[in-house]
Design a protein that fits this description.
Shape: globular
Number of helices: 0
Order of helices and strands: EEEEEEEEEEE
Number of strands: 11
Strand content: over 45%
Radius of gyration: 13 Å
Oligomer: single chain
Length: about 120
Amino acid sequence: QVQLAESGGGSVQSGGSLRLSCAASRFTLDYYAVGWFRQAPGKEREGVSCISSSGNTYYADSVKGRFTISRDDAKNTVYLQMGSLEPEDTARYYCATEEFCSGHYLQWGQGTQVTVSP
């Protein structure tokens, strides 16, 4: 069974930075688009970013210019560098394989919590 494991979450103050990691096991990410989505209590799931298998990147308007997605296929890992964090970014963040960065998620991990205080 494929597995994705997110890490790197934590608590930071507004304006701070975090780098999330998404490590895959039992399969290789090379041929997959990989995205990050987040969900906060009482709110709908929101797609944050996606990177295609060829390296094209996509961002939600709410994070554009602040977040950067990247992938290291040699390490079978995708990263989400988050900067200029705002309290509105507080959520549980999940990485997922996607169909062509379409927002159709195939598999996802347990998530990692990000909490941004004012």
